[in-house]
Protein: PilZ domain-containing protein
Organism: Halobacillus andaensis
Amino acid sequence: MRYQRQESLRYTFQSPPPTTFTIIQIKGHPVETSNGSGYILNLSPNGMLLSTPLKIPFNQNVRLLLNPAFLHQSFDWKAEIVWGKQAGDTYHYGLTLLDDHQQEIINLLKQYKKHETNS
């Protein structure tokens, strides 16, 4: 699986929205972890860039359940870590969404951009 940075609709947030997440699977085995927190730096219909202070073993088929909040709406998105790297005191992870949230995210990004323009 490749992270598609050239994807046509990728929105980079000026003020990244917060998210909580849990690790739900490692190497195909279900796991339960406590909540982690981070920020969504950019979002597209197929994936996102997550920033968090937590070091996650990204090369072990790690799946997350993310609970971001945008414009007073909360979401539950499952994603798999495609790549990761350290960025100063934090870690950045490229995620691909596992379920079909494309239309939901396109509508969300349109609302977010409209709200940002009117603010």
Notes: The two ends are 37 Å apart (CA to CA). The domain at 11-118 is CATH 2.40.10.220 (Thrombin, subunit H). Helices lie at 102-118.
